[in-house]
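User: Batch of two.

Assistant: Item 1 of 2:
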Amino acid sequence: MAADTTNILIVGVGGQGTLLASRVLAQAAVDQGHDVKVSEIHGMAQRGGSVVSQVRYGPKVFSPIIKRGDADVIMAFEKLEAARYLPFLRKGGLMVINTDRIDPLPVMSGEVSYPERLEEKIAQVVPKTIKLDATGIAAGCGTSRAANIVLVGLVGRALSMPLDSLEESVRALVPEKVVAINIKALNAGWNYMDDALISMVRD
């Protein structure tokens, strides 16, 4: 991983808006003059399937693929997906976990049990872990479907992206009828980063 390249791994399940999140972050990075590469390498059309998007930006980016141990940030829309892709996070990287739980098919069928206390277990091995109920925060903004944009706001601030660039990306990429709700969700995620969290992330 080049020191001047920022790598964001976005993981979730189908229907959670991982691709929109990656596009918003990528557009904001483009607006700041970065070279940007985006890839969705495990996308599945059906709801419930694991989806992984990758965003890499910097002065010059040659590949869209983030290798194991190279992600500066993992943005996890669901806690089981956070655990699944933990090996991709670099030492000292940031893990952001939406505490939402979506049971995969083996759990729904009763074949296996959903692992308990995943967020706590991840935080024990990743000092820079932020856990939040992005789905609940988004619901308070008008729709739980904007949880992805709540996470974008938080991660954008953690990476020192300008809020106005993120807002412009949201306005350009979401349907006009839900722009106001998504801008509210973006700001909610941005403001979740209080001084203590900012200090922890940037230490």
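Item 2 of 2:
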Amino acid sequence: MPRLVIDSFHAEYRRYRELSEGAASQVDWPTLRTPLDEQTNSIAIIMKHVAGNLRSRWTDPWTTDGEKPWRDRDREFTDDFADREALQACWRDGWGVVETALTSFSDADLHRELRIRGERHTLALALARSLAHTAYHSGQIVQVARVLASKRGSPWRTLTVLRGGSATHNASMGFDASAPNDELRP
């Protein structure tokens, strides 16, 4: 079965996972547990929440509601990790579930219905919402890590295009914005 759309979703999930992990790897364990202020979540808590959401949404998506009875969403906002390894195990578990689910889907499944909190979703809608949720929190992880690293005077390795580096980045990809792209013209 064709997987053009599913493979695109899979690639985007992978991209946000890599951004989150790239940011988290640049801060030490105490920093992973430090919120920016009392109204925000630490990186560890955001990672726990993302993992819990992915695990719940994508475990048996065709036969069970995406909001599982065993999920304790409120507990996801409690930092009860013994160490960094426990956080990473939780994170890997959630990602393993969505990655396994994605390998089982084909583009023919995109119209199929599943339920999340009793609400009907097509697989296409459920994936779009899940990816948007994951991307939202990935941005939080990157931003919190960058801000806290900066506050501590730690070096930061940029995870995307360097500020002021767009032309160099484009050139490294062989892209010239001024060149016509005849392939896209009707």
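The beta strands are 113-116, 119-122.
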